[in-house]
Design goal:
The complex is a heterodimer of chains A (256) and B (289).
Chain A: E1 6-17, E2 20-26, E3 29-31, E4 35-39, H1 46-52, E5 64-71, E6 74-75, H2 83-89, E7 90-93, H3 104-115, H4 120-133, H5 137-140, H6 153-165, E8 171-175, H7 183-196, E9 201-205, H8 209-215, E10 218-225, E11 228-236, H9 237-241, H10 247-254
Helix pairs in contact in A: 3-4, 3-6, 4-6
Chain B: H1 2-35, H2 38-41, E1 45-46, E2 51-52, H3 55-86, H4 89-104, H5 107-125, H6 137-161, H7 165-173, H8 178-207, H9 210-215, H10 230-233, H11 240-244, H12 248-252, H13 256-284
Antiparallel strand pairs in B: 1-2
The chains are: A alpha/beta (256), B mainly alpha (289).
Bound molecules: adenosine-5'-triphosphate and magnesium ion (MG).
Chain lengths: 256, 289
């Protein structure tokens, strides 16, 4: 077992709406500099759990989160926590790339600019390093001022990643980041994820078991029991995927 | 099929508008012959002397509309940001219904309220400037501001709401606060719609008749040297609409030049409101959509 400390730790994390509980009692530890995969059937609550990790759940009216999430041992729900600063530290990549209608470079610097007032040269350096990190630099370095919307979907997704990276996050939450992409772009993102984990911690929701095997270190399976999403098992990727004693996992894995 | 139909209706719209303009141009021919272009620039309007210059009424219409916009637009945009970005969805719907109800209240009702509430307030508040009465261009402008506010709010709210929520989430996910998201993501993208709301409200303001008629004082030939002076706005004035709705229109009908002068005013108003509405409508369209 890994001895590194857990950068993120959830305890008895539950999310509910007034009419029902969506996910209940999720307790997992996520080790630093790892890719932590979340799998499970559609509607089980993977995205919901993921969004609780940087309090994006706050933005949905009616959603109630109980239990706790700790980042470096400190509760992210503690009074006085700046949820906006938290979201810069725990960045997010969505299923569909969402670029702002601005230039490529403006998109990259979007979140970073507000965090500190940066000089022109620092901005240029930051944009370059973020784009390098997202493996997009060579493709866009000659057209940084071009509208971001002109990029292909795969490039847009990497741009969104660069944008998140520019705020220097420690953790990046990815919600099925390749499900809208073609195989080549998917490969590019997967290669990126493997590289990124040397400096970041990644929580990756995916439906793609090949992807989980390819990039994942640890895996958690969220399934539905009694109509509520729950953490059914976790461990290394292979150990989870080979669990035949948990019916839901068995069914999920064999039907892929 | 849809293409033919859309062409047909576009053609119909243009033809109707053309016909309307045609009638107004044709009916106003006598005054153009009588006054020439000075009909547009002349400051004096004395119909018994057959002197017809529209400037003071164009001034009145523009000034009351500008006052209305200056007051209503900031408030309206602010309210729209509030309804669209801060209110929960259901409360927002209730507020929208209320606003649409307000937009549907007949102008004459606002006019009566203006007489009841606004006239004395203006007279008392600006006493230092020694206005002759509470029936002033400023009074009409303030009243118009209240009347066009619902238009500004609903159209702006729609423009803001049209920005996909994915944009909001993406910005919040980067750590931007709600206010930062509004200012750096939402408003820039809604700018065209926000601008359109102003132009469409301007069209309304210039065309509004009864309410203005009741509080503007309807004084002919009031044209100050400086258009933008608070003191001048505290005088009674005349707008194109308040002139046209007065009994002078009925008197004019027997005299082709006088009638032409009145219809000419209608023509000018039509062009002014039409231009504002048209530009506003084109504004709402995305440049590449
Ligand atoms: N705001 C909400 N109000 C009510 N129900 C919600 C809300 N958000 C999510 N849900 C419900 O919570 C459950 C879990 O949703 P979630 O999006 O987390 O699933 P998921 O595991 O990510 O599914 P998928 O693989 O399809 O993305 C679903 O049944 C969904 O309908
Ligand atoms: Mg999901």
């Amino acid at each position: 077992m890994d001895k590194r400390p857990n950068i993120l730790q959830t305890s008895q994390l539950s999310v509910s709406v007034p009419s029902r509980t969506l996910v209940r009692d999720v307790t997992v530890g996520i080790t630093e500099n790892q890719v932590f995969g979340l799998i499970g059937p559609s509607g089980a609550g993977k995205s919901t759990v993921l969004r609780a990790l940087n309090r994006m759940t706050d933005l949905v009216p009616g959603l109630k989160v109980t239990g706790d999430v700790q980042l470096h041992g400190r509760s992210i729900f503690a009074p006085g926590t700046d949820a906006n600063a938290l979201r810069a530290k725990v960045g997010m990549l969505f299923q569909q790339p969402v670029v702002f209608p601005a230039s490529i470079v403006d998109n990259v610097l979007f979140g970073a600019r507000r965090l500190q007032s940066l000089s022109k040269s620092v901005q240029a350096e930051l944009a370059e390093s973020a784009l390098q990190e997202a493996a997009l630099w060579s493709e866009v370095k000659d057209r940084l001022k071009a509208p971001a919307a002109k990029l292909s979907v795969g490039q847009q997704q990497r741009l969104c990643l660069a944008r998140a990276l520019a705020t220097k996050p420690e953790v990046i939450l990815m919600d099925e980041p390749t499900s809208a992409l073609d195989p080549r772009s998917t490969e590019a993102i997967e290669a990126l994820i493997k590289r990124l984990k040397s400096r970041h911690t990644i929580v990756l929701v995916t439906h793609n078991l090949r992807q989980a095997r390819n990039v994942g270190d640890q895996l958690a399976f969220i399934g539905v029991r009694d109509g509520v999403g729950q953490l059914l098992c976790e461990g290394t990727v292979e150990s989870v995927l080979n669990r035949t004693d948990v019916a839901e996992v068995d069914e999920y894995v064999c039907c892929q | 099929m849809t293409k033919t139909l859309s062409w047909l209706f576009s053609l119909l719209a243009v033809a109707t508008m053309g016909l309307l303009l045609g009638i107004f141009i044709w009916q106003s021919v006598p005054v153009w012959k009588h006054e020439g272009w000075s009909y547009l620039w002349e400051k004096k309007w004395y119909f018994r002397q057959h002197e017809f210059g529209v400037m003071s009424m164009v001034y009145g219409t523009l000034i009351v509309s500008i006052i209305a916009l200056v007051l209503a637009v900031p408030v309206g945009w602010g309210a729209a940001v509030f309804t669209s970005e801060y209110l929960p969805r259901r409360v927002r719907m209730a507020v929208k219904i209320l606003i649409e109800l307000l937009a549907g209240v007949p102008g004459v009702i606002y006019g009566l309220l203006g007489i009841l509430l606004l006239r004395d307030w203006v007279y008392d508040t600006f006493e230092a400037f020694e206005p002759l009465s509470g029936d002033t261009l400023l009074t009409a402008g303030i009243l118009l501001a209240v009347m066009i506010l619902p238009t500004v709010v609903t159209l702006s709210d729609d423009a803001l709401r049209a920005i996909p929520s994915a944009q909001r989430l993406a910005a919040r996910g980067l750590g931007l606060t709600r206010a930062e998201t509004i200012f750096s993501v939402i408003i820039p993208q809604a700018a065209r719609g926000l601008g359109a709301s102003v132009l469409l409200a301007l069209g309304r303001a210039m065309g509004e008749t009864t309410a203005v008629f009741l509080v503007v004082g309807r004084q002919d030939n009031n044209l100050p040297d400086s258009w933008f002076s608070l003191r001048a706005w505290l005088d009674s004035g005349q707008t194109i609409t308040s002139k046209l709705v007065s009994s002078e229109t009925n008197i004019a009908y027997g005299d082709s030049i006088h009638w032409g002068a009145m219809v000419g005013l209608g023509l000018i108003l039509l062009v002014m409101t039409g231009a504002a509405t048209l530009v506003g409508t084109f504004f709402t369209r995305k440049p590449h959509a």
